[in-house]
Amino acid sequence: MISKRMEEALNEQINKEAYSAYMYLAMSAYCNSQGFLGFSHWMRMQYQEEVLHMTKMYDYILAQGGEVFLKTIEEPPKEYGTPLEIFQKTLEHEQFVTKSIHQLMGLAMEEHDYATQTFLQWYVSEQVEEEASVQDVLNPLRMVGEDKGGLMMIDQKLGGRMAPSIPAPAN
Ligand code: OFO
Asked: 53 alpha carbon to ligand 1 midpoint, in Å?
């Protein structure tokens, strides 16, 4: 069982994960339109990952006898600039999501909600991985700058990103 306050906060987080999915899908379309098919693929995989983050939280709310409220998803921008700018925006967004997960954990601690703390631990670790995987792309992007050959090499590498696996059942 979860409190009404926790139910509301988890539903807010579902909306943030849904926005993340939507934004990465928009980035994927943008990269495709710029001819960066590998970057586009990476973003498409990231979109799938966010859908899993969202549904994992959805499953948890239901497993705890709570109610799921799907809210309006904000429209993401259409233009994102250069590959370097795209990944800078991606890192900023993931840092925002990390903060949001930490606030949720803070609420679970305040409420002595041990089940939700255990559940959220997965997201805390996941956000460390999310930020690290974005940094792994940002570092070579900073190195190559505007060199077209370098950008094409990174694009090719990102085209090999594997599809995310289904997360373990809630909790
Ligand atoms: Fe769901 O981790 Fe990214 O946003």
From this structure: 7
Look at the chain and report how many structural domains it folds into.
Answer: 1
Evaluate whether residue 116 is within a structural domain. yes
Residue 168 lies in a domain: no
Cα-based angle 119, 167, 23 (whole degrees, multiple of 5): 95
Residue 164 domain flag: no
In a domain, 167, yes or no: no
CB atoms within 10 A of CB 153: 14
Q: What is the CATH number of the domain that holds 114?
A: 1.20.1260.10
The structure's pTM equals 0.94
Domain span at residue 119 reads 4-158
* Mutation probe of ligand 1 site: the residue of 17, 92, 125, 131 with most atoms within 8 A of C-beta: 17
Nearest CA to ligand 1 atom 3: 94
C-beta of 53 in contact with ligand 1 (< 6 A): yes
pLDDT at 97: 98
SS3 141: helix
Cα gap 20→34, rounded to integer Å: 21
- Enumerate residue ranges in the chain where pLDDT < 50: none
Task: Give the number of the atom of ligand 1 that is nearest the alpha carbon of residue 93.
Answer: 4
